[in-house]
Amino acid sequence: MHLPVDTKTTIKLVQFTDTHIFADPDERFDGVDTAATLKRIIEFAGTEEDWPPHLALVTGDLVHDPVTKAYQRFYSLFGELEVPVCCLPGNHDDPDCMDAHLNSGTISTTKIITAGNWRILLLNTWMRGTHAGHLPEEELNWLDTMLKKQSQGYALICLHHPPVSIASPWMDAMALDNPDDLFTVLDRYQHVKGLVWGHIHQEYTAQRKGVALYGTPSTCVQFTPHADRYRRDDLAPACRWLQLGPGNEINTWVSYADME
Ligand SMILES: [Fe+2]
């Protein structure tokens, strides 16, 4: 996908993640109506200064159970946004089902977006039968090729599973299982400036060798940082704003919706 902006433009992105939409509208995630919280955070984002963004990213666990009906509900919730929406899979998704149902109108499962001075690359860390993530060799080779081909500008990488420990044992047990393979590729390129993910349902920020690392809270239930096992946090549904500046700078912050 190509966004028609010039190289002097600051690219405005909003990230929604772990939307966990159910096929059945009466199902709940720990008592939470995930479609209602998604509507709330989308509505809230629409009142913020950076709306409309150039692009919305949805970084996995789009649905709770990967069936057609759930993706149709997801599609109708995001179809009203009037900005391009690019989606990548999480452990609760089915990449084939996503590809089949999320590639029309403004919604897409494209893996690469070019915009001004930036390239945004979306990785698939989905692995059948587990909540952990993995980057297979073909995905790593694809990333390496895309980064090698980029002769100017900067890159932002998006994925579902964290490639670093977040010091929460039950979450770390289902992180990306081959982060060293990812970092071996990234360390070859100076123009990779940021990595952003979902999965952890909480905010996380770090730096590694000049690359900014960002984990983003969910649009539904949040998890308590540093917990040994599942523990729900009482924070509101959230999204992350990212501004990708023409001179390689990334400005980012997380917005939590006010809940009535
Ligand atoms: Fe999730």
List the topology elements.
Blueprint: E1 2-3, E2 11-16, H1 34-45, E3 55-59, H2 68-78, E4 85-88, H3 95-101, E5 107-108, E6 112-115, E7 118-122, H4 137-149, E8 154-158, H5 169-172, H6 179-186, E9 192-197, E10 204-208, E11 211-215, E12 222-223, E13 232-233, E14 238-244, E15 250-256
Parallel strand pairs: 1-6, 2-3, 3-4, 4-5, 7-8, 8-9, 9-11
Antiparallel strand pairs: 2-14, 6-7, 10-11, 12-13, 14-15
Helix pairs in contact: 4-6
Bound molecules: fe (ii) ion.
The site of fe (ii) ion has 6 residues, from loops.
Number of helices: 6
Shape: globular
Strand arrangement in the largest pleated sheet = 1-6-7-8-9-11-10
Major sheet: 7 strands, mixed
Q: Count all strands and give the number.
A: 15
Secondary-structure-based class equals alpha/beta
CATH class: Alpha Beta
How many angstroms does the end-to-end distance come to? 37 Å
User: Can you tell me the CATH topology?
Assistant: Purple Acid Phosphatase, chain A, domain 2
Any descriptors?
260 residues, six-stranded mixed beta sheet, binds fe (ii) ion, 6 helices, alpha/beta, single chain, 21% helix, seven-stranded mixed beta sheet
Describe the overall structure:
Helix 4 runs parallel beside helix 6. The chain has a single domain, classed as Metallo-dependent phosphatases (Purple Acid Phosphatase, chain A, domain 2), CATH 3.60.21. The strands form three sheets. A seven-stranded mixed β-sheet has the order 1-6-7-8-9-11-10, covered by helices on one side. A hairpin with an 8-residue loop joins strand 12 and strand 13. By secondary structure, it is α/β, with parallel strands linked by helices. The protein is built from six helices and 15 strands. Bound molecules: fe (ii) ion. Fe (ii) ion binds next to loops.
